[in-house]
From TrEMBL:
Domain HTH lysR-type: 17-74
Cross-referenced InterPro entries: LysR-type_TF_proteobact-type, LysR_HTH_N, LysR_subst-bd, WH-like_DNA-bd_sf, WH_DNA-bd_sf
Protein name: Gcv operon activator
GO BP annotation list: DNA-templated transcription
Gene field: gcvA_8
Family listed: Belongs to the LysR transcriptional regulatory family.
Alphabetized Pfam families for the sequence: HTH_1, LysR_substrate
Presence of keyword DNA-binding: yes
Keyword terms of this UniProt record: DNA-binding, Transcription, Transcription regulation
Organism for this UniProt entry: Comamonas testosteroni (Pseudomonas testosteroni)
Keyword check for Endoplasmic reticulum: no
Amino acid sequence: MTRSPGALNSITARRIPPIQCLLTFEALARLRSVTLTAEELCVTPSAVSHRVKQLEQILGARLFGRTDFSLTTDGSSYLAHVREGLGALQRFPGASASPGRRRLKLAVTPTFARVILIPRLRQFTEAYPEIDIALQVSIPLLDVIGEDADLMVRFGAGHYADVEHIELARDTVTPLASPSFIREHGPFERPEDLEGMPLLRSPLEPWRTWFATTGLDMAEPNEGSQFNDIGLMCDAASASMGIALVRHKLGAPWLENGTLVRLFDVDAPSPHAHYLCWKTGIMDRWECAAFAEWLRKAMG
C-alpha cells in the first residue's frame, strides 16, 4: 500500500527530533560541559539542559549520565546516528571540500602507539569521523619529533616546563627473557641469579629500580646492548640477546604469544610514566580536547 505524501510527511515529522536538540546533543557529547556547549551554540546553559531533556523525552531514553555527562549505552548508539545524519546534511551535492573536517596531529612513542593506541584508535575514529588523525613517531625522553604536533605522548618523569600535561598511565616492571635463553642460562630462581647475565639496557627503564625493590646489591649495568625503544628491546630479548626489564602493559604482546616469559614473580614500580602533552592554547580546539578526554578514559 502506497502512503500519500501528506501521510509520509506527518510520520517523518513525528520521528525526527528538532535539529537544535540534535545539535545540542552532539555538542554536549563532544564537549562534556554545559557551559562550553552553551558558548559554542550561543545559547544559555539552561537552554542546553532544556534541549537535552526534550530530546530524551522524544526518544523515551536517557542519553547522559547525570554527573559527568558520559553517554549511556543508548546515548552512545544514538550519537553515531546523529553524527552521520548531521554529516549528511553538511555535505552539499557537488561540493568537493569538507569544511567540517578537522586534522589532529599526534606525536606518539613507538611501542605505546603499536601496543596501546592503535588497538583502541578505531573507537575514537568511529566516535569522531570528522577528525582526521595524522600520527607520527617520537622518541621517548629525547622528545625527537618529526614536525610540530598538536598533542604529544611523552614518556618520562613528568617534569615538563615547556608544555601542559596530564598523566596517562603508570606501570610496574619485571625482568623478561625468551624461553630459549632461560633453557641455556637458567634456571632463574632468585634475583641473585642475574649476576653475570647479559642485561639489556634502556634509559627508559633503569635496572636500579628493580634492584632496589628486590634488595639486590648490583650496580646499574654500563655495558651491553642499549635501546631507546621498549619494543626493540623486547624483540632483542625474544631473539635471546639477553634479559630485558619491561613494563607489563607494553610487554603484553610478547608475553601473550610466549616469545618472552617472566623470570621472577617480583615487580617494581617504574620511575617513569606516559604523559599527554600540549602547548598552551591547544585545548581551545575542540578536536584536541575531544581526543585528550577520550584517551584519558581509554587508558583508565
